[in-house]
Amino acid sequence: MLYRVQGIVIRSMDYGEGNKIMTLCTEAHGKVAVFVRGAKKARSRHGALVQPFTYGEFSFIRSGTGMGTLNQGEVIESNHKLREDITLAAYSAYACELVDKALLDNETGHFWFDQLKSYLSFLGEGRDPVVLTSLFEMKVLQAAGYGPQVDTCMFSGETEGKFWISAGLGGILSEKERRQDPAAVLVSPGVLKLLRLFSRLDIRRLGNIDVKEETRAELKKIMNSFMEAQLGLKLKSRRFLEQLERYEI
């Protein structure tokens, strides 16, 4: 059967001497693996299509739910800026690997496609990568069923006052209830405000948000703790990003 879809290349790997297998996050058919014959050859007309982070239209033949074989394709947005800058490439690879690990094969991918497409577009426009990635992580957690409870205390329902973040319990604790998790950490009002905004905000509607460096550092640390505690994914791209950030510091 012939499929024609819009998709984003979230993974690309060599296969044999001159071929590639790319994994697409598609708008209508979830995550799809597609074999691309001759993609590594210098004069291949498909060379640009298999590059990571490429957004394009792909036609492929597939029988059942197995791997497809590319028939033809067209690049809509190459996102070449994201591959040329090592920091942007690291963030982009992290977002793509998150989708690759969190999205099951053939699972409906409309939500993931829209969020990832906006993430890559905003990243290329120069948006703050820490703020943007934290919002993307929030959307991934929510879509996976592990969205943190940040509007009210998980036990008392309080909405005002000091709050502590419990990554293990998946939300915030009031001062009275902080005993529920001795490992909980105090969250600043500014970061809590951002977390509450992110829990309601579609990434496609993200405006320009300027935050102080200490706020960025706290936000990144809290979201990392939620991702590790709730999803437990060991991602190579996450480790590389952390190494890169240490090197830049």
Summarize the structure in words.
The protein has helices spanning 80-84, 86-102, 110-124, 129-143, 189-200, 213-230, 236-248; strands at residues 2-15, 19-26, 31-36, 55-61, 68-77, 149-153, 163-166, 171-174, 185-187. It is of the alpha+beta class. It has two domains: 2-79, OB fold (Dihydrolipoamide Acetyltransferase, E2P) (Beta Barrel); 127-248, Up-down Bundle (de novo design (two linked rop proteins)). The strands form two sheets. It has a five-stranded mixed barrel with strand order 1-2-3-5-4. It is elongated, with a radius of gyration of 20 Å. The model has no long low-confidence stretch (mean pLDDT 91). Residues 1-78 form the DNA replication/recombination mediator RecO N-terminal domain. InterPro entries: ARFGAP/RecO, DNA_rep/recomb_RecO_N, NA-bd_OB-fold, RecO, RecO_C.
